[in-house]
């Protein structure tokens, strides 16, 4: 079981290889997938350590501020990261904007959620300053409508990748003799988070689904499939620019 620093060093090497302009798109995707697998395995390792009593990993919460523009879409990205990592999300709204998201879960999963959100938001907003609807599907489509659906697609791809990585890590983990399987530990932790969340926030209503118009979903989904699942911030190459 690699320690935190060893894991980050391995993820760092994989992501550096993925960003090398000399590698093919297929090779870059392979490196990114491997990095995602390592991050998921780290989450499984922390869950098993806590279940065995070797470490403490309590259920808690963190409130993450969300900025405009596109605050609701940024909140959607955070939610789509939190859920596959077995966390729950509560949106704080002011009018049509989301001002913050409270993420509820085990401390180790909250750490991964917050780090992934910081990295992926940086990647998304950097690309968002450049994307344009090249083939306007809808007559008179606004740039804002395109970007909202682009972010929706990006978030959807991230959710799918994280869910697959987390499920695979739990399913393929080999339990030591006399120990519970990772799948059972994860199932119990998920149920514990849900119970604790319901006890504190169960009387709140879910927000109705949004209706978005715009042609950016597929472009955003494609970008989300290529995004680095980087929890270290070590590449240092991407800088978020103001989205206008």
Q: What's the total count of β strands?
A: 3
Using only CA atoms, what is the Rg? 19 Å
Question: How many separate structural domains?
Answer: 1
Strand content: 5-15%
Largest sheet: 3 strands, antiparallel
Strand order of the largest sheet: 1-3-2
Which stretches of 5+ consecutive residues score pLDDT under 50? 231-244
Distance between the termini: 45 Å
| Helix proportion | 55-70%
Shape: flat
Number of helices: 7
Structural class given helices, strands, pairing?
Answer: mainly alpha
Mean pLDDT: 78
- SSE arrangement, N to C: HHEHEEHHHH
Domain DUF2786: 7-46
InterPro entries: DUF2786
Region (Disordered): 204-244
Organism: Amycolatopsis keratiniphila
Report on this structure:
By secondary structure, the protein is mostly helical. The protein has one domain. Helix content is 56%, strand content 10%. The chain is built from seven helices and three strands. The protein has helices at residues 4-18, 25-52, 71-82, 107-128, 143-172, 182-201, 217-226, and strands spanning 59-65, 88-94, 97-106. It has a three-stranded antiparallel beta sheet. Strand 2 and strand 3 form a beta hairpin. The protein is flat, with a radius of gyration of 19 Å. The N and C termini lie far apart (45 Å).
Q: What's this entry about, in short?
A:
This is DUF2786 domain-containing protein. InterPro entries: DUF2786 (IPR024498). The chain has helices at 4-18, 25-52, 71-82, 107-128, 143-172, 182-201, 217-226; strands at residues 59-65, 88-94, 97-106.
């Amino acid at each position: 079981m690699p320690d935190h620093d060893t894991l980050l060093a391995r993820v760092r090497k994989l992501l550096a290889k993925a960003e090398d302009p000399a590698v093919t798109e297929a090779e870059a995707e392979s490196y990114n997938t491997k990095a995602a697998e390592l991050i998921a395995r780290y989450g499984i390792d922390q869950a098993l350590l806590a279940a065995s009593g070797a470490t403490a990993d309590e259920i808690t919460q963190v409130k993450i501020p969300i900025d405009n523009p596109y605050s609701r879409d940024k909140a959607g990205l955070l939610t789509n990261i939190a859920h596959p990592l077995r966390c729950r999300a509560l949106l704080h709204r002011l009018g049509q904007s989301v001002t913050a998201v409270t993420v509820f879960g085990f401390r180790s999963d909250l750490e991964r959620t917050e780090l992934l959100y910081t990295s992926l938001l940086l990647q998304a907003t950097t690309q968002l300053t450049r994307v344009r609807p090249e083939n306007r599907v809808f007559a008179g489509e606004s740039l804002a409508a395109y970007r909202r659906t682009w972010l929706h697609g990006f978030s959807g791809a991230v959710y799918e990748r994280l869910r697959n990585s987390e499920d695979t890590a739990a399913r393929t983990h080999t339990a030591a003799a006399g120990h519970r399987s990772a799948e059972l530990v994860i199932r119990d932790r998920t149920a514990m988070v849900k119970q604790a969340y319901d006890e504190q926030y169960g009387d709140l209503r879910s927000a109705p689904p949004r209706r978005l118009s715009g042609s950016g979903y597929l472009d955003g989904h494609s970008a989300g499939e290529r995004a680095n699942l980087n929890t270290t911030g070590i590449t240092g190459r991407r800088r978020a620019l103001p989205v206008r």
